[in-house]
């Protein structure tokens, strides 16, 4: 099917496009998929690449998940779940459940203290 201007296809029920090998949707200026209810991409591997900006916008939440590890972004909070630890960042601050917060500075002081070194502060 070819056209120098445009092609409009209107179906009342559904359209199936099947190919044994590959299907390519290409637009020199833009390409869009739009639906009122649900859009799914299912594959063994999915790659997304943007040479400039990538924006993901959702009305309720965005979920990034690999195995049991999750990053959930909501309108008022971000929740990170990994290895049995849950980190919540919201208007109350940062809360860690099932783990502890450590910093490199605390670790350095701990190592200095346990090796009997003295840290002297001059003002």
UniProtKB/TrEMBL annotation:
<protein>
    <submittedName>
        <fullName>Type VI secretion protein VgrG</fullName>
    </submittedName>
</protein>
């Amino acid at each position: 099917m070819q056209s120098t201007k445009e092609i409009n296809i209107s179906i009342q029920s559904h359209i199936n496009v099947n190919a044994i090998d590959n299907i390519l949707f290409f637009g020199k200026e833009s390409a869009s998929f739009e639906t009122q209810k649900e859009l799914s991409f299912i594959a063994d591997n999915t790659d997304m690449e943007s040479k400039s900006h990538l924006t993901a916008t959702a009305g309720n939440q965005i979920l990034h998940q690999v195995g049991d590890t999750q990053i959930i972004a909501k309108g008022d909070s971000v929740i990170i779940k990994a290895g049995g630890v849950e980190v919540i960042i919201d208007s109350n601050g940062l809360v860690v459940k099932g783990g502890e917060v450590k910093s490199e500075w605390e670790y350095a002081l701990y190592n200095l203290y346990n090796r009997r070194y003295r840290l002297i502060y001059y003002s």
